[in-house]
Prior knowledge:
By secondary structure, the chain is an alpha+beta fold. 26% of the residues lie in helices and 21% in strands. It has 15 helices and 23 strands. A 6-stranded mixed sheet has the order 14-20-13-19-17-18. The longest helix is centred in the C-terminal third of the chain and has 17 residues, at 481-497. The protein is globular and about 80 Å long. The model is unreliable at 1-37 (pLDDT under 50).
Amino acid sequence: MNVSRRKKSIIQAVSILSITTLLFGCSNPNEGADNKKNKDTLTMAWPRDIGEMNPHVYNPSQLFAQSMVYEPLVHYAEGGKLEPFLAKSWDISKDGKTYTFKLRDDVKFSDGSTFDATIVKKNFDAVLKNKALHSWLGFISKIDKTEAVDKQTFRMTLSEAYYPTIQELAVVRPVRFLGEAGFPKNGDTSKGVEQEVGTGPWVLDEYKADQYATFKVNKNYWGPKPKVKKIKVDIIPDAESRVLAFEKGDIDLIFGEGAISVDAYNQLKETKSYKTTMSEPVATRLLIMNTKKKQLADERVRQALQYGFDKKTLVEGITSGLEAPADFILPPNLPYTSNLNVEKRDFDVEKAKTLLDEAGWKLPNGKKVREKDGQPLQIEMMYDAAELVQKAMAETLQSEWATIGVDLKIVGVELPDQVQRFKDNKFDINMYSNFGAPYDPHTFVNIIGTDGFGFKEAISAYPNKDQLLQEMKDVLKTTDETKRQKMYAEILPSLQDQGALVPISYLKKMAIYQNGVTNFKFAANRDENPFAQIGIK
Length: 537
C-alpha cells in the first residue's frame, strides 16, 4: 500500500476510545477460532504517530519504525561489534580516508527492484544535498566523493580521516536506503518520498494518522523472514491508557524508555501474569554544570554539590531500582568506556560543607543559604517538564542541597525549550542524557568540542580546556587503535573529574509483554526495533 506524502506534524489529542483494534487473543485461551486467526499479528502500543516513513529525515519520524523498513550497510551488534549487513565486507585505506564496500548480491527492495552500488550512491548523494541538515553526524561533512565502482562495489572518499565512519553508518537515519521508486523527480528526499520502498523485513501496509500503523512482512526480504506476519502499532499518547489497553489484552507489547511509569511497570511485574525485562544501559543521565556561571566556576563548588547528595538512595528510590547509580559519564558497555580511572565522590555532607567554606561560600548565623561577597549561593536547574523521573530527581536534589546551604531553584520546561536554552548557554545546571549506542563515545566528545551544543561553553572554566578540545579533535582522526584507546582513557576521565559533567544513573529500556510473546530481545542499537526474532505462540 502506498501511503505517500503523509503529513509530518503530530496531532496530540487522540482518544484511546477511538482506536479500533484487531485483537490478538494470546492472553485469553478461550477465544477459539478467532484466536488462531490473529496469532500472526503482534500489537504494540506507542505514544506518538510513526511519522513520515522516509529514511533521510528526522522528527517526528519514529526511529523504530524507520528501522523496520530501511537497512544499513553495517550492523551495530552487542559489545559495540560492527558486523556486515547490506555490505558483506569493507576495506579502509591506510590513511583512513577511502572506504570501499562490497555489497551483497542477493538483496532486493520490497518492490522487487535491485539493490546495488548505483542506488547506494543515489541515496548518499540525496543526503549530501542537505549537508547542513545532517551535520551533527560527523562523517557526513567529510564526504568528498561517492562512486559506484561496479554493480557490487561502492566507494566513499573523505576529506580527512574519521575513525567512527563505520560506526555512524549503522545509525537508523539518515544513511539507510530507499529504492528507486521512492525518489521524487528532483531527487530531493528531504521534502518527502513517493513510496516507502526499503530492503527491510517489513513494509508499511495500513496507516491512519495518529491512530495506528500496520506493517506486513516484505515478501522480497533477502534475510530470514520474521516469525510474525504483521506488526500493528496502536498510537496511545497517554501512559496510563497504554497500561489499561495492555491489561485488557488489546496490546501484546509495550517497550521503550519511560514507556510506562516505574510504578506501573513494577505493579505489572509483581502480578506475575506477564513477562517483563530491562535492557542493558542505553545512556547516562547527567547533570551538566555551566562553569561560565559565577557560582559554578570554582571546581570546589562543583565537587561540593556532588558530595552533597546521596546518589544511590536517590536513584534507587525514584526508579525503584530499575536504573542503577552511574559512576561514569558514559555507560561502561559502550566502546572505549570500560575500566576508566575516574575519581568517585560518594555522599559526604561534611566534605561538601568544608569545600564550600574553602571556596568562600559561608553560612551566616541565622541563615539557611550560604553567601559570598553579599550574594546568596543560588543556582537554577532546568529539566524536561514531561519527564517525571527528571522532575523527581530535581526535587530531591533541591532538598538535599538545601542541607549544605545551597538554594536550588528548579524549573520544568518543554523539551524544545530545554534543548535551545542549553545550546544558547542560558542555564546553570541542565539535566541531560547522552546518545548511547551506536553514537558514543565519539558523538559525545564531538558535540562537547563543537560550538553551539552547550557543552563547550559549560566546560569553559576547565584549566586544560584547550588541550582537551584538541585531544577530542585528534581522537576522531587517529587510525591507530592502541593510541585511540589511550586517548579516550585520558579524555573521558578529565571531562568527568573536573565536575561539570556529573553522572547520575544509567538509563534502561523497559519491556512488558503478554505470555504468548516469545524471543523478545532488545537491539544493541538504542534506536532499532526489537522484532527480528519475536514470535507468538
